[in-house]
Amino acid sequence: MGAPAMSKTITIDGKNVPFQDGQTIMNAALAAGVYIPHLCHNPQFEPHGSCKLCVVSVNGRNMTSCTMPAAEDMVVANNTPELNSDRKALVQMLFVEGNHICPACEASGNCQLQAAAYYLNMLSPHYTHFYQPRAVDASHPDIFLDLNRCILCELCVRASREVDGKNVFGISGRGIGTRLVVNAASGRLGDTNFAATDKAAHVCPTGTILIKRQGYKIPIGQRTFDHKKISEVQMEPMEPDHE
Amino acid sequence: MEPREFPQIEQQLAPVFERHGREANQLLQILREVQEIFHFIPPAAITCIAAHLGVPRTRVEGVAGFYSFLSLKPVGEYRILFSDNITDQMQGNPELMRYFCHKLWLEPGKVSEDSLLSVDSTSCTGMCDQGPAALVNGWPLTNLDHERLDLIAELIRGRKPVCDWPPRLFEVKDNIRRSGTLLGEPFAPGAAIKATLARGSAATLLEMEASGLRGRGGAGFSVARKWSMCRASPGEQHYMVCNADEGEPGTFKDRVLLNSYADLVCEGMTVGARIIGATKGFLYLRGEYRYLLNKLEQVLARRRAAGLLGRNILGETGFDFDIEIHLGAGAYICGEESALIESLEGKRGRPRNRPPFPVTHGYLDQPTVVDNVETLACAARIAAQGGEWFAAMGTAQSSGSKILSIAGDCARPGIYEYPFGVTLHEILDDCGAEDSYAVQVSGPSGILVSSKEFGRCISFEDLPTAGAFTVFKRGRDLLQIVQNFAHFFAHESCGFCTPCRVGTQLQKKIVDKIANDHGTVSDLEELKQLGHIMQTMSHCGLGHTAPNPVLDMLKKFPDAYQHKLKDLAFEPAFDLDGALETARNITGRDDTWAHLP
Questions:
Q1: Which of A62, A173, A181 is the closest to B495 by Cβ?
Q2: CA distance B594 to B591
Q3: Which architecture characterizes domain A9-79 according to CATH?
Q4: Which residue of B has its CA nearest to A173?
Q5: pLDDT on residue A1
C-alpha cells in the first residue's frame, strides 16, 4: 500500500486511526498497529465475520469490525473489559462446542483458539461440554482432517476457493449440525484433489487440518505462541502460515 | 442400511434439469424435486447436479444439508411431520404423535423397516387456528385427532397416493373473524396499477410517503424510503421480492392473504416494480405453503391474460414485469431478507454481512426490494386510494391497520384486522379469551406480555408485531412454553456465527435443566448472561431475538420457574438419571426401579 491521501480517520479507544475508503475497521486497525481479537479473519482472504470475536462498539452500537467498512466519525471502543469478557465467552463457547483436548493436540502452542483463550484470560471452559461425536479423517496420504477441532471459520474453504482454485472444502448442515465437508462423493479427504502444498492446508487456526509426519518437529515450548502473544503474531504484516 | 445404487440417476434427473435449466440459482428448486423422487438427496444425485450446474459438489451438499425438508439420509415414502408449535402442543400434538407412532410400530425420527413411513416433528406449519396440524409429503393436515390418524394409518398401509386421500383431511380455512379496510373492502384487479400509471411513479411514491406505510414483517422500515432508495440505486436490473416465508411460530395471516387476496399482493408487487424500475419479481413461498403453489400460479396466469403482468402492462409501452414463485424448503432464517435473497440464488440461507443492503446490492448483487406479503397488499390499496386515506387510520407513527393471527387459548382463533392502536384487552375480548395470563405478541422473537400489561396497544410505538398473537390462559405452564421457544431457536439457528449457533443450544440446555427440576439460582444468572451475549454479539435478528422469551419470563413471570429451582447454589448439568434413558429404552422398562431416586 502506498500513501494516497489518508485524511479520513476513525478513533479506536481514543487513538486516531486513518483509513481509506472501502477499508474495514479491522484492516484499518491492523495497519495502524491496533489489535482487535479475531479468529476467522485473515487479511489474505475475503472477510467472513462468523466468529464474532472482533465485534467492537461503534458509536455505542456493536458491529463486526472485519466486515464493517470504516467511516468518518466512527468512535470505536475495542479493548474494554465488557467486550473482552464477551469475547472470552465466545471462545468458551467454541471450546465446549468442539472437542478440544489441548494437551493431546499436535497444534498445541501453534493454535490460535488456544492463544486467544490465553489472551482473553480464559481459565476454564465454563459452559457444559457438548461432547458431539465428530469424525477424524485420515484417508489422505499427507493430511489429517480432525473435525473435533473445527471452529467453522471457513478459512480453508476460502483458501481452497480463492487461492488454490479447487473448492476442496465446503459447509453443510445447519445450526449446531453445521459441519465442514469435502468435495468427494465418499466424503473422504483422500478422494479429493487436496495437496499438502495447497494454501488451504496451512491456514487452519486450530489443529483441524494437520500435515502428517510433522507433528512434533517443533517441540512444545518452542512454538509460535509459546513465546509470543496472539496479539503480537496476528499483527505481523503477513501472518505466517501455520505449521 | 446398505447404500443404495443409482445407476439410472442421469436419466431420472433429466426431466428435472429440463424444467429448471442450468442456472445455479435453480439449485434449491432442483433439490426439492430430487427429494420428492428419491425421498432423500442421494450422494450420486449431488454429484450429478453439481456437474449439470457447473458448481462444486460441496455447494450442492451444503444446500442439501441446510433445509429441513431436504435430507441427506432416506426418509419414508410417506413422511409425516407433526407441527411442534406451542399451539399445536397445547392442542395435543405430542400425544397424537406418540399414538400414531405406537399404532404403526415406529419411533419418531426413524424410518420404518420397509422404508414406507417416517414420522418426525417440524417447526410451526402456520395452521395454529386449526391445529393440531402436520405435513404429509409437504401437504398440510389440519384438525388432527385419533379418528383422523387412524384413517391416515389405513391409507398409508394401503399405500394410497397422498393425492388420492380424502380432501377433508387437507381442508384449510381462512377463519377471517374481523375485517377492516384491507380485508373487507372490494378490490378490482388492475385498479392500483391504473391509478399508478395515471398519477405517475414519482407521484405514487409521494402517496406512499404520505401514507406513512411501514413494513409489516416486524422491522417497520418505511416503505417509501426503501422504494426510493432502490429506485435511486444504479444497476443492470432491479428486483421486486415478496417475502412469503411466514415462519414466525404463531403467524398465519400471509397464508390467508395469499389464499384469498393474491391479486392485492401481486398488484402491490407490480406497483412497486413500476416505481423501482423492476421487470422481474419473485414470490418466495415458504415450503409449508407449497399447497398454495398451483392456486397462485393460476392467479399469475389470469393476470397475464388480463394484461396485468407480462409485457406492456395495461398497454403501457415498456412497462414489463412478471413474477416467478420460488419455494422454500423449511428454514425460518429465510424470512430474514438477506438470507431470503441467498436462498433465491439457490444457496444456504445465511444472512449476509451488511452493508451493503439489498436496496443497493440484493438479488444477484442488483438493487432489490424485499417486502412482506401484507405490506404489499397495503401498498396496492394506497396506490389505488391514496396516502391520506391510509394515514387517517391508526396512530401517529403506525398508520393503517394490522392483521393479527390469533391462536391459543381463545374461543375464536383466526384472522383479525384492527387499526393500529388497539389494546390487548379489546383483542382478547373479541376473540373470546377468558382468564388470560399472558400473550406472546409477534411470536417467540417478539414480546411475552403479562396480564398486567393488557392495557398496552399494538403499534410501532408500543407493541410492534409481525402478526402473531398467541394467548395463554391461567394455569398454562409458562416454563414449558418458553422451553418450546428455546428449542425452536436452537433448531432454526443457521449456524453461521458463534454466539447464535452455540448460544441457542446452551440456552435450550439450561431451560431444559430447569424444566427437569435440576435448575438452581446460578442457572438464572447464566441465562441472563447468555441472553446478553446473543443480543449483542450475533450476526442477525435471529440471534438478537432468540433470548427474548427467556428474558421476558425471568423478568415478568418468576412464578413460572421459582418453584422448580433446587435449594442449592449450583447443581451440575449432568443428569445421572437422564443418563439411564438409553438403558430404559433398550429394556423397554420405565418402572420405579429403572430410575434413580
A1: A173
A2: 5
A3: Roll (3.10)
A4: B65
A5: 43
